[in-house]
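Box S1 | Example of a co-folding query
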Amino acid sequence: FVAVFDFGAQYGQLIARRVRDLHVYSEIVPCDISADELAAMAPSAIILSGGPASVYAEGAPDMDARVFELGIPILGFCYGEQIMAVKLGGEVAHTDKGEYGPATLTRLGSSVLLDGTPEGGQTVWMSHRDSVSRAPEDFMVTGRTDTCPVAVMECPRRRLFATQFHPEVRHSEYGTRMLENFLFGVCHLEKSWTMEGIIDQKVEEIRQQVGSRKVILALSGGVDSSVVAALVHRAIGDQLTCVFVNHGMLRKGEPEMVEEVFREQFHMPLVHVHAEERYAKMLAGVTDPEKKRRLIGTEFWKVFFDEAQKIGDVEMLAQGTIYPDIIESGARKTGGKAATIKSHHNLIPFPEGVHFDLIEPLDHFFKDEVRELGIALGLPAKMVWRQPFPGPGLAIRIIGEVTPEKLAILKDADAIVREELDAYNQRLFEETGDRNSEHACWQYFAVLPDIRSVGVMGDERTYRRPIIVRAVESTDAMTADWAKLPYDVIGRISSRIVDEVDGVNRVVYDVTPKPPATIEWE
Ligand code: XMP
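Box S1 (continued) | Returned holo structure for xanthosine-5'-monophosphate
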């Protein structure tokens, strides 16, 4: 496998994903892992990521210089190039002005890393302030840009390579070729990370881990829990029971889709808990967003564990933790120190005295891989490509008290927003061939505020509710921008909502990025 050293700000994640896209397994390791620990993991190659710090700055992320003595091929990008230079006796200088964005790379002589890329200029993506001013002894400088004298350096004898730019970024025209040159030309790695291979391996692992025990899973209909369900079911069949807690605040058509896919298509043991009334009573009169969240979350697990009790003798709980959850929660499995950004959001509040062994078969998969796995396991595309949906559901998209009347309005309006923007995304996908195309809407839904406004329909004055349409572009929900939808798309959403949804006489579009707003309204 390829060990990716992460020098901060999660630069490593994109690199690990690019390597896996080339069908080679890669894993992120903390940058300060010792050479001995690393040697014990026996990676076939190492990639050093970029990072926001300056190598000479106090407290800058550091690495064990003995890693360079292990004889493992190493490729460094940006900060990775700079730290390689410094550790091996070269020099890094603070350039007068940083360089951000596209630059033209000129090749200097023959190069292992740049093999098969143009001799003349090629576009590479830069994002740095410091840069290497003198390569270490033994290294050849094989590329430069106007502002960067050592844009590429290599020492083929020791199999050490580095670039100042970011080959992992799509804007670097021949970045993929450079990665291929390193992975296959230098390291002779095999393309063994393929979905078929992965499924076989995971199925075997799950069988080993579970044995004859019973497993339970909280199925939400979301991507991660659905893929875990399909995967674990492939491995152990009816030893798995899925519990679907229907709290009544799911989107229109969602409970039906869960039934259709899991009961009818997969023939899985599925417990559909109708908790709609229980939740409606519990939420009556509650207006505070955090109180809604707390009540819904606590009740969810109470209902779930009651069901587990009824099934009896369940010893294991499967859950859809994915790789970014692990990395973000402090690299639990890799035992590392990646900065803790947010606590593990999948932590389950087990009741007193209750214990389950956890099984988390997706804990080393990126989201895109989870979707690919879902398709390979036979889940429908509409389920695998679903947008994120918050656990508390529509309750946090109804401002103020949740009532049956408001829920009915929101469900209908939201279905229209989704239908129109699903189609918009599909058109973009057909035009660009990219599901994650920059302007695709990442999350889109309707919000129902707790106000009414005056309107006119026919000859009659109306006093009804408005619907807020929220649609954002984002990659990770940490930041987001409002989607620049074509006017005709917004117009159609608006007229359909006022025509088709009873009780609504106005539609507005939220044009606020995050920050300062959040994606959700509560
Ligand atoms: P915000 O509104 O904070 O949302 O910009 C960021 C992302 O998180 C989702 N979200 C939640 N997910 N439980 C969840 O499981 C919650 O309480 C919750 N609140 C927000 C939101 O949909 C967006 O994708």
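The chain is about 35% helix and 25% strand. The longest strand covers residues 91-107.
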